[in-house]
Amino acid sequence: MEQYRVRSDHHPAQRRQQRPPAPPAQRRPPGAVGAAAVRPRPRPGGAGGPGRLPRPRLTGLGGGLFACAAMVLAGGIDWLVFDVSLIAYGVLFLPVAAVTALWVRPADLITAPVSVPIAFAVGVWPVAGGSGGFGGQVMGVVTALSMHAGWLYAGTLVAALIALGRRAVWSSRRKLRTAARRVPVQG
Description:
By secondary structure, this protein is mainly α. The chain has a domain at 60-173. Helices cover 57% and strands 2% of the residues. The chain is built from 6 helices and 2 strands, in the order αββααααα. β1 (32-33) and β2 form a beta hairpin. The relative contact order is 0.13.
């Protein structure tokens, strides 16, 4: 569920065509910032080493769908294994909230704290314990949401803190890249 945006003013081929080539004395090696070259750090365990979570880049809608599917699965696991324990459901909600906030792409970070509580409400349906038809099920969901709002708030807070932290890191890296482009090359 990844979407790409292509902006014509940032396309590398067009940037090369717009600027005249630099004289050989002023050319920088690839990855150089100013006069010093920046070497990429090797990742521990190789490119996709063992013990690392995958780094998917979900859109806002994809993150919401992932969270909803994961919480329905968590509700089913809770119903089968823990015999409808809303505390176990709340504990399963916290890592889903964290992973959703980690896997959403930087442009859609604001959607993580919004979609996570919706996913909690969607997934609580199988473990709500309502009876007596549709109205009883709805009352069971409302009761479960009100009685276990602490888990809902905690997961939303986890997603919001991770999203804010990722946004701060993303903004600072973006500012550094912009500043590195403005550094004059000394020959």
